[in-house]
Amino acid sequence: MSNCPDKNPLQREGLSQFQRALAALQPDYIKVDERTITDLMAFAAAYAKDTQVRFFDLTGSPDNGETWTDLMNYEKQFNTNDILQELNSRSDFPPHFALFLCFLKLFFNAQNDINTLTKRHLDFYYKDVLQLSNNAPVADRVHIVF
C-alpha cells in the first residue's frame, strides 16, 4: 500500500466558512475618508500656495505680495518621514500651527464617525428595513465515508 501513487480522492484541503469570507465584503474594507494627517497637511500646504486665496495683513487690507505658504508650510517644521512621532513629542509649535493641528485632531473624530457609515447603513437596512434577525449558530457536521 505504501507504493500506491494515488492519494485518497476524498481527502481535500478545505476552508472554513470564516476563511472563505472575502475581505471586500467587510463594512470596513473601504473607508469613506481615507486621508491621513500627512495627506491633510500636504493638502493645506498645497492649498496655501494657491494665488486665489488672498492673504490679509493685520490692518485687514489684502496684501498682494504675501501668501499663506509660510504659515502652512509644514515641511520646514517637520521631518516628513516621522511626522506623527514628532507631533506627539514636540510642544513648541507656533500658535497658528498649533490651532491647525488641534483642528486636525478634532477632524479625526468626525472622520472616524463617518467611516462607520457603511456598517451603520447595512445594520439599518437589514435589521430595521428588512427586519431580519441573525440565525442561531449551528454546530458543524461531518460525513465520514469508510
How are the elements arranged and paired?
Blueprint: H1 17-20, H2 37-48, E1 55-56, E2 62-63, H3 69-72, H4 83-89, H5 95-114, H6 117-129
Antiparallel strand pairs: 1-2
List keywords for this structure.
146 residues, mainly alpha, 6 helices, 41% helix
Task: Find the count of extended strands (DSSP E, 2+ residues).
Answer: 2
Q: Approximately what portion of the residues adopt beta-strand conformation?
A: under 5%
Shape: elongated
Distance between the termini: 17 Å
pLDDT below 50 for ≥5 consecutive residues: which ranges? none
- How many whole angstroms does the radius of gyration measure? 28 Å
Classify the secondary structure makeup into a structural class.
Answer: mainly alpha
Q: Helix share of residues? A: 40-55%
Count of separate DSSP helical elements: 6
Mean pLDDT: 78
Largest sheet: 2 strands, antiparallel
